[in-house]
Specification:
The protein is flat, with a radius of gyration of 18 Å. It is mainly α.
């Protein structure tokens, strides 16, 4: 369960600078908790949220209007993940 909470906190913190600041503040608070699981979640989230790659991506200017940011793209369409075949076909 603690891994899922950490993933959620890290995911929220990677969305934009405002949420990043809130996620870092919460992770710092958790990292000083008296409960071991809470401490682990806080430290794990801080490790990623304060990494140079995350900071760089958040501070990067947005792409052209109407074009999705590469970090927010699922990438499935470009990787040949087309639609699933109709049911009943081999």
């Amino acid at each position: 369960m603690k891994k899922a909470v950490s993933w959620a906190l890290r995911g929220i913190g990677r969305r934009n600078l405002e949420l990043h600041a809130a996620a870092v503040a919460l992770a710092r608070r958790l990292s000083t908790s008296t409960h071991a699981a809470s401490r682990w979640v806080g430290k794990d989230a801080l490790r990623e949220l304060l990494s140079p790659g995350v900071i760089r991506r958040l501070e990067a200017p947005p792409g052209p209007a109407g074009k999705e940011h590469p970090a927010r793209s699922t990438g499935r369409a470009s990787e040949g993940w087309g639609e699933a075949p109709p049911r009943g076909t081999p």
